[in-house]
Amino acid sequence: MNANAAPALQPSAIEALPRTLASSVLSYVTSDDWLNFRSASKSCHEIVHGTPDVWASTSSDAPANGGSESESDSLWRLALFRDYGFGKPSDTAMIPLMKAGGDGEDVYRRCIHASDPQSGAFLSTKDVFTAPSCYVAWKHWRRIDQRLHRNAIRGKSISSTEEDVSGPYFLRACAMWKKIEEWCKDEGRSGPVGRQILASLLPGRALDVNADGRISNAKTSALKAVYAFYAGQCDPMEEGPDPEHPMSFNPFIGLFGGFSAYNMTSCTFFVEPEMCQGSNHLTIAEAGGKKIVLDLSDGCVRQFCTIGGRNMFMAAAGPTEDAPRGPDQLLLWFEKHADRLQRNHLATGEIVKNNPPMYSLLRYPTVYDTAMCSRAVTRGVEVVSSSVCVPEEQIFVYSIRMRLLTPEDGAGYETPEQRGFQTLKKFGGKA
């Protein structure tokens, strides 16, 4: 025996513990503490990552391992819950993800590549993927968190707040924007205005409107998720017509649609966020004398307009059966709009008579929206009626559309001989 040989290093107290017990101990400290702990030795690294192989645990391309990897994955799933809001499948934020076809554990490994800061947009709907492990998923959410909060993440508390990055909100916002993109690109549904709306959307950005902490416990998690992909629309009135194609100018390309009646024409645009002076309200959409605002103090979406010289706030979005009132009201408001587009509950059409015609997304519900639109057929004539609330004028505007059914429509069609007339005409108009 060599008397000069260095004594063998004894494992630390935590290294000597069974893996399950060691993981339990780590659950009482933050994720940052885990990252510091893993660098102490190979054994510590194995407790945190399930393997002593540094490349295998940190590479996004490395396959998931078995054995002690499962305990490590449970540890990082806890980190996803504490740091980025991935809770139980029954949690309010998780329900839409599970309904969208989430496959059990895969939902917890869904994440988004943070785009290159030089590319313009903060995040893209094309960058969603399923990570090989919960740790890799956590690492991508952390990268988004660092960019969003300017690296002010060291020493992150175990207790999350409603201003933190919420992974489920970001995934839901991504799915919502993807629906809108698909609708805009489908000319069969969006007509000529769809691509104009898509082209008007501004690149998403890292938005932290309460960085100074002025509003205590502000509800901004959903706001950050929505604006990460797109951050408003260009105002066509500010840009003016294209000198080379002046006849293509269209000022009615608001994402949330418009209407025209009598001497009123209104089109609601998605706008860059702007704080209303002296309040906790943030403007997110606007049309003439009306604004859609997010109340940062409670997370609710409201309409704001001036009626009879008084400033009035009215509800613009309420809780659904699946999601009681909570901090994701802004996200629910956008999701409802995207869902209506996908289901053809709204359609595009001429908003004002012009030469050439000007098209817009029309706010009148279509026949596909059976709850908000009435339809009747008599003597081969289809009559469709729906309405739009115009709070700034304290009125409802009704749209009544009539057309002759064709043989392709099937039920209700009658030949000219059966119905007794050839064409329809407006009252006081021409045949």
Structural class: alpha+beta
- Tell me the span between the first and last alpha carbons: 113 Å
Instruction: Describe the oligomeric state of these chains in a short phrase.
Output: single chain
Q: Given the C-alpha coordinates, what overall shape results?
A: elongated
Summarize the amount of helix as a percent range.
Answer: 25-40%
Helical region count? 14
What is the chain-wise order of helices and strands?
HHHHHHEEHHHHEHEHEEEEEEEHEEEEEH
Radius of gyration: 28 Å
Average pLDDT, rounded to a whole number, is: 80
Largest beta sheet: strand ordering: 7-8-9-10-11
Beta-strand portion reads: 15-25%
Compute the number of strand runs. 16
- What does the largest sheet look like? 5 strands, antiparallel
Can you tell me the residue ranges where pLDDT is under 50 for at least 5 consecutive residues?
60-68
Your description of this structure?
By secondary structure, the chain is an alpha+beta fold. 29% of the residues lie in helices and 21% in strands. It has helices at residues 19-26, 31-38, 42-49, 54-58, 69-84, 95-99, 134-148, 167-185, 187-190, 193-200, 221-227, 236-239, 329-342, 416-419; strands at 110-112, 128-130, 201-203, 230-233, 258-261, 264-267, 269-275, 281-287, 290-295, 301-307, 310-315, 347-352, 358-362, 373-378, 381-390, 395-404. It has a five-stranded antiparallel sheet with strand order 7-8-9-10-11. A three-stranded antiparallel sheet has the order 14-15-16, with no helix packed on it. It has a two-stranded antiparallel sheet with strand order 1-2. Helix 3 crosses helix 5 (69-84). The longest helix is centred in the middle third of the chain and has 19 residues, at 167-185.
